[in-house]
Each structure stands twice: as structure tokens, then as C-alpha cells.
Design goal:
Elements (H helix, E strand, L loop, with lengths): L1 E6 L4 E8 L1 H18 L12 H31 L9 E2 L15 E8 L13 E7 L3 H14 L2 E4 L8 E10 L2 E2 L5 E7 L7 H5 L9 E4 L1 H5 L2 H8 L3 H6 L4 E12 L5 H8 L7 H35 L7 H11 L5 H27 L6 H18 L7 H11 L3 H23 L1 E7 L1 H12 L1
Parallel strand pairs: 5-12
Antiparallel strand pairs: 1-2, 2-4, 3-4, 6-11, 7-8, 7-9, 7-11, 10-11
Length: about 450
């Protein structure tokens, strides 16, 4: 086989693959003999079908399959041997490619278009300036997190006298002319919370009520929402809307949610037994967790700003736009030309950033080991547990959870890319000049609001 490369410009080239019979004949004959062994054709014993018949029946398909495999291997080897950095994949030429007839031809020529990444080096030094935002871990944030923990680890208690946020349970009976309507609506174990009553006069009827009290109120006036009334009366929305009567509510139980006390029991539930031994240590541990999370947010913002900085610095890189759009269309059958045009600027920005990161990684000998990926998986696992308020999870549990995540190939690939990017960003952080700015969490969040508009 012979491959001839013709450079069209700095970013595109044409590859002509000349394939002769000697390049494929042996493989095709071997494949046909395999077909012969397996073929089940009436009138012939297995393995004794004439090779000529097999050739007539399967020859074209086998030839096409073997040549396609030959082309794939040849292109891959050519790219590796010549150390080409392709953008996308080779595409069949649409203008110069001649017709192919696998039934009559013995020699073939296939023409492919390829796109090459621009040649450039990424330079950076202390003259390059990027902002880094340090987010303050305020006392208010610590207090709010403490309140979140005391709320999360509280408990339900049974009370004798109700407060506004308590949950009441009792029998609900419809009234008519001030008396129980025997044919009316009757609900056992009806649950309501006075705090959700919208009408102030109706809400006052439940002020300081006690277990065993009877309250007469009007659900329609109280809630003013047909969905809530329907839920209370255990009826459809339409049926509930028709009922304007007063109801008698006999309170059978009063349930209150009491926040946890700030004591050793709470410390152990949040961080594990004996890790924290005083309220002062508890506050400090909370602050450490907040700082850790805020540092992750600061690094995330730095990643966005570093990307924007380098995309601006190398905005004049040349790319084969027509080829890339064509390749995106060929690779995504569900995309239209209009969608490609609309999304192309973002795709190109992603591609540029990928090439810049790759250059920085190679120049700084950035390597990603499996242990790095495992640690990233553990960080992700901890973050997922933290979303549900589970802090201080045993390391063995975290490690096993991470191992399960790493069984998925797509997850491993994603984590690998995440680790590689983080390492490149650390290189950038230590090489450029950082302009450190201390901001509040509100100021930090407003930056993202501004970017989204």
C-alpha cells in the first residue's frame, strides 16, 4: 500500500491511499475459506461448498470489509508514524474521490481529507495576570451551618399545647347549622399545621390549642387553595371546591419537631464519635469544611478565568472551520447544519482550550496516575454524601463507594480528564501572577450572575 500526502494549507491535507491486490488478497482468501467452513447451503455438506460459489455469494462483501479494515489500520498507523495531531477524524473526500466497484476492480484509490491542529507553543510567565478570588468564611455562614445541623438531627416530640409550626392530627367533621352533619364529610387522622393557614382570623382559632380541644373553622377560608383543601378533606379538587361548610376539628395529638441540642451527641452524629469534643471545636470544624468548599469554588472560578485568559491570548490560532463543521455533522447524525452553526463558536472554544491544556501538560510533564483518579473519585463520593448531610463518613465506606464508581469506563475517563485539568491549573497558578482578591460569598455569586447575562 502506498499513501501520498498533499498539504492544502496549514490546517488541512489530503491523503491518497493506493491499494493493490497484493495488499488484501491473502486476507480476503482466508476470510472466504472461513465462510466456506461455516456456510450451510442446501445440496452441499458443511465445509464442501465450492470456493467459487462462496466467492460469487460473498466475494464483494468480504472484499469491502477487508479493504475497510485495511484503510482504518493504514490511516491509524500513518498518523502515529508521522506524529500528526488530527482534529476530528479523516473524512472521505467529496470532490475527487472516484467511484469504487468491488466487483470489477482489483486496484483501488481512496482519498481522505484530514485536519491538522495548529502548531504553537503556550508561553506564560509573571507578566500574565489572572484574578484569584478568596471567599470569606464568615461567622454568619458558620452559624447557618450549625443551625442546619441542629435542624437536620432534631427529633419529633409529643406536646400538650400547640405552637404555630406544630403538626396537629385529629378527627374532622363537617357541620351544618352548627351541628355535625351525619351525611357530611368525615376525615379520621386529618393532619394540618396552623403555620400554613393563610387567613389570619382562621389561624387565630388555633392559637395555643391543647390536645383534646375542639376547634370550629372553615377550610375554604383558612387555606384559600383548592389543592390544600382537597388534601385536608381527602377529596378531589372539584369535590372539595363545592364544600363551603365549617368543620369541627377534634385535636387528638400535637407533634413538634425540636432541633438538636449543641452537645456531644450532635458532634458525634455529624463528624463521628469523639472527633469533636466541644462547641468551640465544632465551630472550628464547620469553618474548616466551609473553607474547603469555598476553596473548591475559588478554584472552579479560577479555572473559568484561566480558560478565558488563554483563549484570549491565543485567539488568532488558525482552524479549518469548514472541515470541523463537516466532521461534526458526520459524527452527529441528529444534528442539523443550523445547529452546528449555532454551536460552533462554543465547540471551537472547547477545542482551543483542550489543545492549550494538552500543550501545558506536555511542557510541564503533567502525569495522571491511577491513584490520582482514585482520590478524585473519593472526593466526589464525599461531596455526594455531603449533599445529604452525611459528614465524616468512614474511609472504608468512601473507598468502596469510589471503587464502584471506577467500574464505569465513562466515569474513569471523566475523572481522568478532571484530574489532568486540575494539575494543569495548578501549573498555571504557580507560573502566572495571581491577583488575589478577597470577596464575600454574595459578591462571589454575583460574578456568576453577571456572566450568565
Amino acid at each position: 500500500m502506498n499513501i501520498v500526502r498533499k498539504d492544502l494549507d496549514n490546517n488541512t491535507a489530503q491523503l491518497r491511499l493506493h491499494i493493490e491486490k497484493a495488499d488484501y488478497a491473502e486476507k480476503v482468501n482466508k476470510a472466504l475459506r472461513n465462510y466456506r467452513q461455516k456456510a450451510n447451503i442446501p445440496g452441499f455438506r458443511p465445509g464442501h461448498v465450492p470456493l467459487g460459489l462462496i466467492q460469487r455469494m460473498y466475494g464483494k462483501a468480504v472484499l469491502a470489509e477487508e479493504i475497510n479494515q485495511l484503510i482504518g489500520d493504514a490511516l491509524s498507523n500513518y498518523v502515529q508514524e508521522n506524529k500528526l495531531q488530527l482534529l476530528g477524524e479523516a473524512l472521505p473526500n467529496e470532490s475527487e474521490q472516484g467511484e469504487i466497484d468491488f466487483g470489477t476492480q482489483e486496484d483501488f484509490e481512496f482519498i481522505f481529507d484530514i485536519a491538522l491542529a495548529p502548531e504553537f507553543e503556550v508561553e506564560m510567565n509573571k507578566k500574565d495576570t489572572i484574578n484569584y478570588y478568596n471567599i470569606e468564611a464568615s461567622d454568619v455562614m458558620v452559624e447557618n451551618q450549625m443551625k442546619a445541623y441542629t435542624g437536620r438531627y432534631g427529633k419529633y416530640t409529643q406536646e400538650e399545647e400547640a405552637q404555630e409550626k406544630d403538626m396537629l392530627k385529629g378527627q374532622l367533621l363537617e357541620l351544618k347549622d352548627g351541628k355535625i352533619n351525619e351525611a357530611g364529610v368525615k376525615v379520621e387522622n386529618a393532619v394540618l399545621t396552623p403555620a400554613y393557614i393563610k387567613d389570619e382570623e382562621q389561624k387565630k382559632l388555633f392559637d395555643k390549642v391543647k390536645k383534646g380541644d375542639i376547634v370550629v373553622f372553615n377550610p375554604q377560608k383558612a387555606f384559600g387553595d383548592k389543592a390544600e383543601v382537597a388534601s385536608l378533606l381527602n377529596l378531589s379538587k372539584d369535590a372539595a371546591q363545592e364544600i363551603q361548610s365549617d368543620f369541627q376539628y377534634s385535636i387528638q395529638s400535637i407533634t413538634r419537631y425540636v432541633e438538636a441540642e449543641v452537645n456531644q451527641e450532635l458532634f458525634d452524629k455529624v463528624y463521628g464519635e469523639g472527633v469533636v469534643k466541644s462547641e468551640e471545636e465544632f465551630r472550628e470544624k464547620i469553618r474548616e469544611n466551609i473553607v474547603e468548599n469555598l476553596t473548591a469554588d475559588s478554584n472552579y472560578k479560577f479555572g473559568i478565568d484561566a480558560r478565558a485568559f488563554f483563549l484570549k491570548k491565543y485567539e488568532n490560532l488558525s482552524f479549518p472551520d469548514d472541515f470541523l463543521k463537516r466532521w461534526v455533522l458526520a459524527s452527529n447524525k441528529n444534528m442539523t447544519s443550523e445547529q452546528v452553526e449555532e454551536n460552533y463558536p462554543q465547540m471551537l472554544a472547547d477545542l482551543k482550550w483542550h489543545l492549550i491544556k494538552d500543550k501545558l501538560a506536555k511542557a510541564n510533564e503533567v502525569k495522571v496516575e491511577f491513584d490520582d483518579v482514585k482520590e478524585q473519585a473519593k472526593k466526589l463520593a464525599k461531596a455526594q454524601f455531603a449533599q445529604y448531610g452525611i459528614i465524616g463518613m468512614d474511609d472504608n465506606v468512601i473507598s468502596n463507594y469510589a471503587d464502584d464508581m471506577l467500574k464505569r469506563e465513562e466515569t474513569v475517563k471523566s475523572l481522568f480528564e478532571k484530574v489532568a485539568e486540575e494539575k494543569v491549573l495548578e501549573v498555571i497558578k504557580t507560573t502566572v501572577k495571581l491577583t488575589n482578591k478577597t470577596v464575600s460569598i454574595d459578591e462571589f455569586n454575583k460574578m456568576f450572575e453577571a456572566e450568565s447575562h
